[in-house]
């Protein structure tokens, strides 16, 4: 491929690591809502070094001031500068799995020195999704209890950590003891096995239930997830990784129990709002610096084995975030 040419609002990045994401898998099958004409390059999350300087003064949409307040649409001006040699992470709809990638400056983020490139490639999509789900859509409060399905995967581990960063108690739902151990290491306060999780969760909470459920799986777990919710609980629908079809809800259950089902489509929301991701990232930085957010990197692959990485993800072999290494560190 010819070297990409950045536009006036882009950053050119020498890519060191690329995250492997479920949307990559769907893109490769032509099953994602975004369907670029093949041939095209995969890769959504990237981490590397800036090779083209850029200075941005962006009008960034501010995050809501508090969980009970209305959305704040007032713009706040913040200056973000990228120079050659800066360590960064970024997120694009596709096209990141290459030696050089063009990333919009609005979705490029300074990478703290204590975060490796592999960890940096695990951060953007999963952790910004978790932040959007918990704060914007879930209106999380300190002291609440958050139940996380698929808790040993990329979005799951991100949600466990971000929820703890907001002062919540976390319960991880996993399919095996190996994944339970992984989820605990990632930050879960409690773990339960998928088989019979509803009764186990109610026992853990003294019959009250949980305040938030983050569901990346869909399928058969959906109804029991609703039954796990405490009064005023919120179920956040992130995806349907279980592959069992899209579940349905009888809305009388919502009325009788005063509970909500809320969709979480971070990409569709954030990608069309330039500047929205920057304050999201700023809210994660204290969690990164404190060590609460520390992406667990699972398997790593060389660039020419990106296909194997996708096959392993499809076979549910991935723990944490799988990463493809584009540039071998010397």
Largest sheet: 7 strands, mixed
Which CATH C-level class of the largest domain is it? Answer: Alpha Beta
Beta fraction: 25-35%
What is the rounded distance between the termini?
Answer: 24 Å
Would you tell me the structural class of the helices and strands? Answer: alpha/beta
CATH topology of the largest domain: Quinone Oxidoreductase, Chain A, domain 1
Q: In sequence order, what are the helices and strands, one letter per element?
A: EHEEEEEEHHEHEHEHEHEHEHHEHE
Task: Give the number of DSSP strands.
Answer: 15
Q: What's the number of structural domains?
A: 2
Walk me through the structure.
- By secondary structure, the chain is α/β, with parallel strands linked by helices.
- The protein folds into 2 domains: 10-123 and 268-325, Alpha-Beta Complex (Quinone Oxidoreductase, Chain A, domain 1); 127-263, Rossmann fold.
- The chain is built from 11 helices and 15 strands.
- It has helices at 22-29, 117-121, 124-137, 154-165, 177-186, 197-204, 221-227, 251-257, 266-270, 277-290, 306-314; strands at 10-19, 45-50, 54-61, 75-82, 87-91, 100-104, 108-110, 145-148, 169-174, 190-193, 210-215, 229-237, 260-263, 297-302, 321-325.
- Strands 1, 2, 5, 6, 7, 14 and 15 form a 7-stranded mixed beta sheet that branches. Strands 10-9-8-11-12-13 form a 6-stranded parallel beta sheet, with helices on both faces. Strands 3-4 form a two-stranded antiparallel ribbon.
- Helix 11 links the parallel strand 14 (297-302) and strand 15 (321-325).
- Helix 3 (124-137) packs across helix 4 and helix 3 (124-137) packs across helix 10 (277-290).
- The longest helix has 14 residues, at 124-137.
- It is globular.
